[in-house]
């Protein structure tokens, strides 16, 4: 049994590590897009002249991920990544429903059985999210509050849409 437990443990560490790395790449693109729109510091939208990537956002993302990976237990970090990802998918599902009701909605592609699948997707996401521990929700809400504070005190004034 120890050999099987070891194989499962190695697989779990590899899986969690790869998920965190992929989410880190997504994080850098979000930081890049927000800074390009004026919602975060403009310097994070700078593109590397040789590699054509948002290198300052990538450095920030790598630093924050390394810090979180070094300070948080792997279980807690995985739960935070999960709640963030699930919440993002939930917002996409809700946005698709709202966009479909918009008058100027003209999609480039259509979702088959959207009236059934999108609400089912939202319900499934909510059920999965309900199973996360309360401490994960508290951390997630604190992270959201931090994001709102950044928006209120920096993003609102510097937003390109606001100008």
Question: Could you outline the blueprint of secondary structure elements for this entry?
Answer:
Blueprint: H1 2-36, H2 55-71, H3 74-101, H4 114-130, H5 134-158
Helix pairs in contact: 1-2, 1-3, 3-4, 3-5
Features:
mainly alpha, 5 helices, globular
Task: Describe the structure in your own words.
The protein has 163 residues and is mainly α. It contains five helices and no strands. The chain folds into two domains: 1-71, no CATH class; 73-163, no CATH class. The longest helix has 35 residues, at 2-36.
- Could you state the order of secondary-structure elements as H and E? HHHHH
Distance between the termini: 63 Å
Which regions contain 5 or more consecutive residues with pLDDT less than 50?
A: none
Q: What is the assembly state of the chains in this entry?
A: single chain
What coarse outline follows from CA principal-axis ratios?
Answer: globular
Structural class: mainly alpha
Please give the radius of gyration in angstroms: 19 Å
Give the count of structural domains: 2
| Number of helices, where a helix is a run of at least 4 consecutive DSSP H or I residues | 5
Q: How confident overall, as mean pLDDT?
A: 88
How is the main sheet built? none
Strand content: under 5%
Helical residues, percent: over 70%
Number of strands: 0
């Amino acid at each position: 049994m120890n050999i099987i437990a070891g194989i499962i443990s190695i697989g779990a560490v590899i899986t969690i590590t790869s998920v965190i790395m992929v989410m880190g790449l997504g994080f850098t693109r979000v930081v890049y897009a927000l800074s390009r729109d004026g919602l975060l510091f403009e310097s994070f939208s700078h593109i590397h002249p040789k590699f054509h990537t948002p290198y300052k956002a990538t450095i920030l993302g790598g630093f924050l991920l390394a810090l979180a990976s070094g300070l948080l237990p792997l279980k807690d970090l995985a739960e935070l990544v999960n709640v963030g990802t699930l919440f993002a998918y939930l917002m996409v599902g809700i946005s698709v429903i709202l966009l479909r009701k918009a008058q100027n909605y003209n999609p480039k592609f259509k979702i088959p059985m959207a009236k059934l699948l999108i609400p089912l997707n939202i319900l499934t996401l909510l059920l999965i999210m309900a199973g996360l521990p309360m401490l994960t929700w508290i951390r997630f809400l604190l992270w959201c509050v931090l994001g709102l504070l950044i928006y209120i005190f920096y993003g609102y004034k510097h937003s390109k849409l606001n100008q």
